[in-house]
Design goal:
The protein is α/β, with parallel strands linked by helices. 55% of the residues lie in helices and 9% in strands. Helix 10 crosses helix 11.
Length: 410
């Protein structure tokens, strides 16, 4: 194998330091190595850039170690080509390990073009990704606070969750806030706060909300309510900022939303992870593998082993499975038929991942072709499933020694 880079650098990145090895020299001769260690402070990284340019380095390679690669990327972006390798793939090869040996090894792999490159989206997408990931974390924090609120109510003999479907609705929260001020709520108090269908449950609500609430419980409830209000305000701010960042991607967002089950929020989250340009993925299979939603490929001696999905982009997988769950409830769509045909054999969790895989393939082609999604309908899926089942039954009968002849029914 012939080297392809005259001068390149491999980096072993840590929180406080980065070990750098430059491999340079003619392609027809063994390379010379220059090794130095730099601090990860911005001024030292600027010195690193000057040192790299001194040796005419055109490409640098490093592992995607946590967030520690980002300061280096921020300094080098736009001036040097950066190859970001998946650390899991590099660790798969057994070797002796020191920081200096690691950076030298990365430089060698990079010189021969053997360092696998990871997808680094453009700055606009990276900023949108940070906002969407933060929003997802805040939504999770709010859900945790709401769950803690329910636990405190249960501990105080308040059985509100047994009566109302949505304990975080307007009526429920109004009742909980009233309980912070009053020891007991009357029918009149509850009827004023009850909205919609809850007006018919005033008697049941009266029994549910009058429990054993103490000052200790009130203190905890007030704290959880304050946290919920604060998180709601923060999520609203994030939504406003995401809306601004999504202005250049309105066309792509609307295209993705033509797919059943994908909301505006999830369209933004999906675009933040995969970007709007599908040319960075060779085909839909590469995108599915990168996302970690396609079946695993584990075969040895002609025997197929586990088909468990591999690790991928957890944020993208989360947004896709949420959309898949919404799509499974849409009536008369191919997604709904696909879900109900598969769930009998695979169960809910595996079926949702399979549906997420199917949706990601459709997202790929929608963005690739810039054409809205056209659903083939539930009937087409049912017909396809019926024909597949028929072929399977025919094969089983023929394998058992029977001769199968199709005849038209009267």
């Amino acid at each position: 194998m012939e080297p392809i880079l005259i001068s390149c650098a491999g980096m072993d990145v840590h929180e406080k330091k980065v070990d750098v090895c430059i491999a340079h020299g003619p392609l027809d001769k063994p390379p010379k190595f220059e090794i130095r260690t730099f601090s990860t402070m911005t001024s030292d990284l600027e010195d690193l850039k000057i040192w790299l340019k001194k040796y005419d380095v055109t490409t640098i390679g490093m592992e995607s170690t946590g967030v520690y690669w980002k300061p280096i990327f921020n300094v080098m972006e736009g001036e040097l080509k950066i190859v970001l390798a998946n650390a899991q793939r590099l660790k798969a090869i057994p070797r002796k390990k020191t920081d200096i040996m690691d950076c030298k090894r990365i430089a060698n792999l990079l010189r021969y073009g053997l360092l696998p490159n990871s997808f680094i989206p453009p700055r606009e997408i990276r900023e949108l990704r940070d906002l969407n990931r933060t929003r997802r974390k805040f939504v999770g924090m709010m859900t945790s606070e709401k769950n803690r609120l329910v636990k405190v109510l249960e501990a105080a003999n308040i059985k509100l969750s047994s009566v109302v479907t949505k304990i975080y609705g307007v009526s429920s929260l109004a009742i909980i806030r009233s309980l912070l001020e009053k020891n007991k709520l009357s029918k009149e108090d509850i009827s004023k706060m009850a909205k919609g269908k809850l007006k018919k449950k005033v008697d049941l609500l009266e029994k549910a909300v009058n429990g054993k609430l103490t000052d200790h419980h009130r203190f905890l409830l007030e704290m959880h309510l304050q946290n919920i209000d604060y998180l709601a305000k923060q999520i609203k701010k994030l939504d406003e900022e995401i809306e601004k960042k999504m202005v250049p991607f309105q066309k792509e967002s609307k295209l993705i939303q033509t797919i059943p089950g994908i909301s505006e929020v999830n369209a933004s989250a999906i675009l933040a992870e995969i970007g709007a340009d599908m040319s960075q993925f060779p085909d839909e299979a590469h995108l599915s593998s990168w996302a970690g939603v396609c079946p695993g490929n584990n075969e040895s001696a002609g025997k197929k082993k586990s088909g468990k999905t591999q690790k991928g982009n957890s944020f993208l997988k989360g947004a896709l499975t949420e959309s898949a769950w919404a799509a499974s409830k849409t009536k008369n769509t191919s997604y709904n038929a696909f879900y109900h045909n598969l769930i009998r054999r695979k169960g809910k969790k595996k079926t949702l991942v399979a549906l997420a895989h199917r949706m990601l393939i459709d997202i790929y082609f929608v963005l690739k072709t810039s054409e809205p999604y056209q659903d083939i309908g539930a009937e087409a899926i049912h017909e396809r499933t019926s024909k597949r089942r028929e072929r399977s039954m025919v094969r089983s009968l023929e394998k058992a020694g029977y001769s199968v002849t199709k005849a038209a029914t009267a």
